[in-house]
Design a protein that fits this description.
Helix content: 25-40%
Shape: globular
Strand order of the largest sheet: 1-6-5-3-4-2
Largest sheet: 6 strands, mixed
CATH architecture of the largest domain: 3-Layer(aba) Sandwich
Number of strands: 6
CATH topology of the largest domain: Glutaredoxin
Mean pLDDT: 84
Low-confidence stretches: 1-16, 20-40, 53-61
Number of helices: 5
Strand content: 5-15%
Structural class: alpha/beta
Distance between the termini: 127 Å
CATH class of the largest domain: Alpha Beta
Length: 241
């Protein structure tokens, strides 16, 4: 004979079951709050990454040139041509113009018909003859210009469609020692300043960074044959002061 269930227990049993269900639901609510904490941690991590990235970008804009030196495969013991007095080289600037790019050292051998992977070229093997300093209104021989860079020249190039007043601004640089100015059809920027292994692209001829670049990198000690002259070579400038 099956024992009979007390009426009181028939009433309490559903309440007990309901209590267990509510307890489980409360436990589920607590665990569902955990992802919110994880989401906050993720946001904090993202903020930290953004801060680190900004810090890295700030470091990149401050170019440190103190570790640069003439490359191990670059010839640096050649004397100037007869009749040219060697100029004293200057150290690299502690605070170079913003935006300069630095390229790896290669070699500076005298070869015929060298090729370059940048336009304008910044360094590398070059023609046996260098290019005379001054302003030119036509493109010049690049392999000879690179030889001039090897001597410490700053080569200022400009797009052929640069406005006439900007060209006139650049033309004045052609009167300075160890500076070559010439048009360069293949370059990306309106104005580009190049010295041995260093380059700066500019949008305007009157950008003050151009003046700083010339002063900072003319006859720079990083050029293997800095000070070996910018005359008695090839080319007849349209203007040289």
């Amino acid at each position: 004979m099956r024992p009979q269930t007390s009426p009181k227990w028939r009433f309490l049993a559903p309440l007990l079951a309901l209590t267990l269900v509510l307890a489980a639901a409360c436990g589920g609510t607590d665990s569902s709050q955990e992802p919110a904490g994880e989401e906050m941690d993720s946001e904090e991590s993202s903020m930290m990454e953004d801060t680190a990235m900004e810090s890295s970008m700030m470091e990149e804009t401050t170019m440190d040139l103190s570790q640069l030196a003439v490359g191990p495969e670059e010839e640096a013991n050649m004397s100037p041509a007869e009749g040219i007095e060697k100029a004293e080289s200057q150290p690299l600037p502690e605070d170079p113009p913003e935006g300069v790019e630095v390229f790896d050292a290669t070699t500076n051998e005298l070869v015929d018909n060298p090729s370059y992977d940048r336009s304008p070229a910044t360094n590398g093997d070059h023609d046996p003859f260098w290019w005379n300093c001054g302003y030119y209104d036509e493109p010049i021989d690049e392999a000879k210009a690179v030889h001039s860079l090897d001597h410490g020249v700053v080569w200022i190039t400009y797009s052929p469609d640069l406005p006439a007043e900007d060209v006139e601004t650049l033309r004045e640089y052609g009167a300075e020692e160890y500076v070559i100015v010439s048009p360069y059809p293949e370059q990306n920027a309106p104005v580009t300043a190049t010295s041995w292994r260093i380059q700066l692209e500019l949008d305007e001829a009157d950008d003050p960074r151009l003046r700083q670049f010339v002063d900072d990198f003319r006859v720079s000690e990083i050029a293997p044959l800095a000070g070996n002259g910018c005359t008695k070579g090839s080319g007849e400038p349209a203007f040289s002061g």
